[in-house]
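Lay summary. Proteins are chains of building blocks that fold into shapes, and those shapes determine what they do. In this project we predict the shape from the chain. Here is one chain we studied, written as its sequence of building blocks.
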Amino acid sequence: MSWRLRIRHVTGFAYPGPVLASYNEARLTPMTLPSQTTLFSQVEAAPAATTYRYHDYWGTLVTCFDLQRPHQQLKVTASSLVETGHPTPAKETLDWTELRGAADRHIELLSASARTHVDEEPAAEVAPLVGTAHPADAALAVAAWVRDAVAYVPGSTGVQTSAQEAWNLRKGVCQDIAHLTLGLLRGLGIPARYVSGYLHPHMEAEIGATVAGQSHAWVEWWCGDWTGYDPTNGVPVGPRHVVVARGRDYDDVPPLKGVYHGPPSTELGVTVELTRLT
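And here is the predicted shape, written in a compact code that computers can read:
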């Protein structure tokens, strides 16, 4: 069953004094994929600015704009209409020997980053779970283990928290759970990437009702085909998930980032509204 979702995402920054110039990138446009079609998308800035778009290295659509006049607030509003469905199940799954033979194709998604690096302790705890399991089954086992080992606690960590720090705390948010899952999968030799987007909070969403949502993060691993999985909720990716950006970790997919000339900024706040239309 497919869903049609209307999404409104508002974010930005406030400044205690005038900012003379700023240069910004927004990753707020949902992708069009075999299981997802973006019917409409618009990114607007206030103060008004001319925007241009490009696809980055990982295939994410980036909206860029700059402001060359004094301003004390930057507000970015992204509006989208998206149809989602169930991804096609993986057609091919490789064994460990075949997976190692394909490592060169995915070397960037097998390498640990500062955000996804984990030490020997969690890796050693995962190893017995994997045993002689097929890579695809091992990936599911890793995701389930992370969900059990790290409690989802909103506000318990910050945007700069690493996978190892979340493991030490045994708690985190979806970003941390995704990073820890990535670090362990890559350590096993399974290519894996970070995915950011949205998740409708209700499995049986009421048609026409607008609900408060938030940005969400999950993972995709490759064992011959890409498989999306949400380790925070312990479910495969489905119609409630909307893919916006992909990369090695959060650093490749921030919804809004930039540089500016002016005093230190504070977040304006983030609001996400999701409406299921069909």
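What the prediction tells us: The mean pLDDT is 95.
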